[in-house]
Design brief:
By secondary structure, the protein is of the alpha/beta class. Helix content is 40%, strand content 23%. It is built from 16 helices and 22 strands. The strands form 6 sheets. A 7-stranded mixed sheet has the order 12-15-16-11-10-18-19, sandwiched between helices. It has a 6-stranded mixed sheet with strand order 7-6-5-8-9-21, sandwiched between helices. A 3-stranded antiparallel sheet has the order 3-4-22. α3 runs antiparallel to α5 and α4 packs across α5. The longest helix has 29 residues. The chain is globular and about 70 Å long. Bound molecules: glyceraldehyde-3-phosphate (G3H).
């Protein structure tokens, strides 16, 4: 409710994926602590958001669009002043390289300004009147209520803000819980929130999701749930809401994006894009390429070139120049990756590249696994890490069948220079996923494009204009002439 709360309760210790040498070997470095709220504090924050919304009568939901924009501009200005510390914390807290951390910050600022521009456009259009059948109507975009916003660890700033900003700028009030890995970096922004928005508009809570979020959902006071995370968690949370049919959910969930590399593909390009698509931020992106189908006739050549390209990638600390492979923030991840690599080996796959899967503390060197088949965990599980499963295929029907059968439906990449091959596969693919990439990796941007997924991959559409629509409802003031 616009107040910093003095904390005397339990704290969570944050250990960086960046390790230091101790007498017990390499250990994750303690870089800070944050409060572990109990249900009591979380519910008090929720009450502040509910009071600020005041059933749509609050200062914020009734404020003019122009004034809300001013508050967001003021916040952004203050946020930019915190860039250095936020970037530093991105590196230390989640191990993101310096270049990618700067990109995450800049992309977020750009997203906010794009959102402001888009809202001005929407407002200009909707401030007009429409007349039909003896009725004149003013069309407005109205807020939905109280939003619970939870972003992911891999884009703790950017993806949190791709929901937080449109949610508040549309007049909703908000409860915001930063991700477990990626909490500290929000601390420098708290003062900016406090100074830029009326009390109760943005309420930040910390702690273990599983011990505070259920009570928030059970209260029935959340109108919009927005989560970038797993479909399992999203489904569990939705069920807790007493009036689930009144809850709007805007969700970015699981994905297992496939690449299909056909014999007509430009192999050099396919290798370059596979490296970027599978290994940027160590494969910890929802849009990462998580399974590669390669035509049998070119599989050996592709794997040779892929392994060579991987051997040239630079690994090191997030602040090392040109580094691509960095330590992994989730402490369980190296063991999990080892387990799926072993499982694939037990079912007949081999690690094809030198040092593939080698683990040192929180680093895992990328592993190319081949030939992967449907008996392996890697075939269906979302690895969210630097392991690249390669599946040989004979007929294009095989990867297309895989995508149709999948419970995921985010994106697919197809590498081909054969027009007939492309035209026959695009329609079946575009009916399964929300974006088909031709001769390029999967990715979210440019952020002006709609970002969503089918099946278990998403609910609602994000990215600038779509997000403004997602966090509001069109309503009319209609007058009979
Ligand atoms: O992790 C999921 C993100 O939406 C991926 O975004 O494709 O820009 O890396 P990106």
């Amino acid at each position: 409710n616009g107040e910093m709360v003095e904390w005397t309760g339990k704290v969570h210790e944050v250990y960086s994926p960046v390790c230091i040498r101790t007498e017990n070997g390499l250990q994750r470095k303690l870089i800070g602590t944050y409060p572990v709220c109990t249900e009591k504090e979380a519910l008090a924050a929720l009450d502040a958001a509910v009071a600020a919304y005041d059933n749509g009568r609050g200062q914020w939901p009734t404020m003019s669009v122009a004034d809300r924009i001013k508050c967001v501009e003021e916040f952004t200005h203050k946020m930019i002043q915190q860039k250095d510390i936020v970037v530093k914390l991105l590196m230390w807290e989640i191990g993101k390289s310096y270049a990618d951390s700067v990109k995450e910050f800049d992309r977020t600022v750009e997203y906010i300004y794009d959102t402001i521009d888009a809202l001005k456009d929407i407002d200009r259009q909707s401030s007009g009147f429409e007349q039909e059948g003896g009725i004149i109507a003013q069309i407005r975009r109205s807020p939905l209520g109280v939003v619970l916003c939870m972003g992911p660890f891999n884009y703790p700033l950017n993806e949190t803000f791709t929901t937080l900003i449109p949610a508040i700028i549309m007049g909703n009030t908000l409860l915001f819980k930063p991700p477990k890995h990626g909490t500290l970096l929000h601390y420098p922004l708290l003062r900016a929130f406090q100074e830029s928005f009326p009390k109760g508009v943005v309420n930040t809570i910390y702690g273990r999701g599983h011990s505070i979020v259920p009570a928030l959902m059970q209260s029935g006071k959340i109108n919009v749930l927005t989560l970038i995370g797993s479909s399992k968690v999203a489904n569990e949370l939705k069920k807790l809401h007493p009036k689930v049919n009144r809850l709007r959910a805007i969700l970015g969930l699981d994905a297992k994006n496939a690449a299909i590399i056909t014999p007509s593909a430009d192999l050099k390009l396919a290798v370059q894009e596979t490296v970027l698509g599978s290994l940027s931020f160590n494969g910890q992106r929802c849009t990462a390429l998580k399974i590669i189908f390669v035509h049998k006739s070119i599989a050996e050549q592709f794997i040779g070139q892929l392994s060579e390209a991987i051997s040239k990638l630079k690994y090191g600390m997030p602040w090392n120049e040109g580094v691509m492979l960095t330590p992994l923030p989730e402490p369980h991840k190296p063991d999990y990756l080892k387990e799926i690599i072993e499982d694939a080996k037990a079912h007949g796959a081999k690690v094809m590249n030198e040092n593939g899967g080698t683990t040192v503390a929180s680093f895992v060197f990328p592993a190319v696994m081949y030939p992967v088949n449907n008996k392996m965990k890697l075939y269906r599980e979302e690895q969210f890490g630097p392991v690249i499963p390669v599946v040989p295929y004979e007929s294009l029907e095989e990867p297309i069948e895989y995508i149709i059968d999948s419970t995921h439906g985010q994106q697919v990449s197809i590498f081909s220079n054969d027009v007939e091959e492309l035209s026959s596969s695009i329609d079946p693919l575009v009916n399964q996923v929300s974006r088909v990439n031709i001769n390029s990796q999967c990715q979210r941007g440019p952020d002006i494009f709609p970002f969503t997924g089918r099946k278990d991959s998403a609910e609602g559409t994000l990215s600038v204009v779509d997000a403004l629509r997602a966090f509001s409802i069109r309503s009319l003031v209609a007058t009979k002439l």
